[in-house]
């Protein structure tokens, strides 16, 4: 199965709906497991502050922050494919977090791969814009 760019872009949106629901506390019991299922076993990221973060740390971040941002709204826009091969896509997108305390905007670059017939996120790099 070749990766389809529209499916990769849709994964950005569906993943962030889950993230918003988990952080806001409006999530169903299975949402955390559904979110973690997006990530490859070897997933890692560099957060917007420049810190390297492992999959285990990402799991902890989501598990420990369930319901702790009840006012968060996440908007995804300006998605662009930078590179596409049959089994990998590199794309960028802008992510806007709106809360009562303010707005954070970051630009992200993600590597999405097909591994064993499944589309998974392998790498993510975030950079603060505002």
Automatic annotation (TrEMBL):
It comes from the Bacteria. InterPro entries: NTF2-like_dom_sf. Gene3D superfamilies: 3.10.450.50. This is DUF4440 domain-containing protein. It comes from Acinetobacter genomosp. 15BJ.
């Amino acid at each position: 199965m070749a990766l389809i760019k529209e499916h990769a872009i849709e994964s950005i949106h569906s993943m962030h709906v889950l993230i918003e629901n988990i952080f806001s506390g409006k999530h169903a019991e299975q949402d955390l497991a559904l979110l973690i299922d997006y990530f490859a076993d070897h997933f890692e990221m560099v957060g917007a502050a420049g810190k390297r973060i492992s999959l285990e740390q990402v799991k902890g971040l989501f598990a420990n922050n369930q319901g702790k941002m009840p006012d968060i709204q996440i908007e995804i826009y300006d998605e662009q494919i930078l590179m596409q091969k049959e089994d990998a896509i590199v794309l960028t997108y802008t992510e806007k977090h709106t809360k009562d305390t303010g707005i954070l905007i970051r630009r992200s670059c993600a590597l999405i791969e097909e591994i064993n017939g499944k589309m998974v996120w392998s790498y993510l790099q975030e950079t603060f814009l505002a």
